[in-house]
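Appendix C reproduces, verbatim, an entry submitted by the partner laboratory led by Prof. M.T., so that reviewers can inspect both the input and the predicted structure.
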Amino acid sequence: MVPIFVSLLYWQKLKIFEARISPDVGCLVISQLADWCKNMTEIRLHGSVLMEREVTCLVEGLSGLKILDVCESTLSCAALGIMLDGRLKCVREINVLHCKFVGNNGEDARADYLDFRVFRDEMLEKACGMKSLKKFVHCLEGTCLHCKNRSSENK
């Protein structure tokens, strides 16, 4: 058993969780949080790698979240779509600031400006359609120097 899973047995009243989660245990940690921490209202997964599987576990298991912060993480484009699909009924704030978005091919989605613009518009429209969402923190505009520098370092 991974050490954090043992701790979760004692954290049943945990409301806020903040960590960096490695891709190999991401879904396991999130599903354990959903199973054991029913009072969870805020989750911060900075610098994590979150694909469709992890985000699906998150929105289905922790649908009562009020704050979801995944800034500076790597997200698949589909994962952001799942975050904004309306299953998080209570969410007031979603933070995807400085995230790297990867497409179906695993490449940086910002590399294709036109496709990324269509993706951005779809995501902003989804965010606007969420009734409980009051704050959507992002840098999807393409002018963020932090994101430009990070993507040029990875080339």
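DSSP finds six helices and eight strands in the chain. Additional entries are available on request from the coordinating office.
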